[in-house]
Amino acid sequence: MLATSDSSFLGKHKLQIWKKIGEGSFSKVYLTKVGDAEDKNPTMIATKVINKNRVSSKFVEKFLPRELDVLVKLKHPYIVQVFSVFQNGYKIYINMEFAENGDLFTHLHNTVMSESQIRSWLMQILWAFIYMHTMGVVHRDLKCENILLTSNYNVRIADFGFARFVDRGRNPGADTLCGTMTYSSPELLFGHRPYNPVVADVWAIGVVLYMMANNMAPFRDKTKEEIHKKQISKNYAFRKTLGRSRPLINLTATFLEPDYMKRTKLKNALQHSWVREGNIKTPVDVITANESDRAINSNPIITQTSLKVPAFHYHLSEYGKTISKINEGFTAV
């Protein structure tokens, strides 16, 4: 549990920590109540707490500023919504949307998914990443644990700790090795420096798609050498007992293409026959960008509008609008 000083600080902003719901390498995540103590129907959010004294100087100086910049910039129905960011001494508090149904990784341990459900979640992931890449952002750490599920089982892409901006008008090269080995593309494991983080994101989506269809990872070896060998030879298989359709298997192969020059484009994946046969509406069909802004601006939860993180000269009001809003305007599609 947080120290008394933390609880007191958050209490000034009408935030009350209830319990810890997650923990990562650099942070802890708490379920947080918004509003007065006597509120009988409180709004619940998630508060990510980062202790700068317990992470490397490289993380504080490089990755944390990037994460905050990215979280403030992105606003999409299938990306976790950030409401506010505070700093109190050496701790950073990121207050964000709470996903009641946990993460995809846990869900896969308990459920064999229908192709209809796989299709729905894949489309949500694709639209989130198409938007993200259009905004000049690459995630670089997509995995099932970073795909959260809301109360009505919609996707929320989370954990932008390794995300960065890329220049969309130039070759978006990256040198830093990020992410989890299971989800890393062949060119990331061995070879190309700089690599293209956009197509590396595409590979990671393919691993997620495979795992939704098979309840296991496509490459489960312990060393990157063994994994890389199987990636290059396309040495993976679908579980016959699950009876997955040939179009789904073929689509997965376009993501798990070891030659990054031949790997599918996300917009092309949306046009694949297996995706289109579901006739599922996309976010573009459901809500426009202007409607998205109105939905967010009509649901204020926290009224903090100017937040500073002096350690790296971070000022949210530079973006010209408050991010201290909650997005409740989106429903399942």
Automatic annotation (TrEMBL):
SUPFAM superfamilies: Protein kinase-like (PK-like). One of its GO terms (molecular function) is tau-protein kinase activity. It holds the Pfam family Pkinase. One of its GO terms (cellular component) is cytoplasm. Keywords: ATP-binding, Kinase, Nucleotide-binding, Serine/threonine-protein kinase, Transferase. Residues 15-275 form the Protein kinase domain. InterPro entries: Kinase-like_dom_sf, Prot_kinase_dom, Ser/Thr_kinase_AS. The keyword ATP-binding applies. Coiled coil: none annotated. It comes from the Eukaryota. GO terms for biological process: intracellular signal transduction; microtubule cytoskeleton organization. Gene3D superfamilies: Transferase(Phosphotransferase) domain 1 (1.10.510.10). This is Protein kinase domain-containing protein. It comes from Aphis gossypii (Cotton aphid).
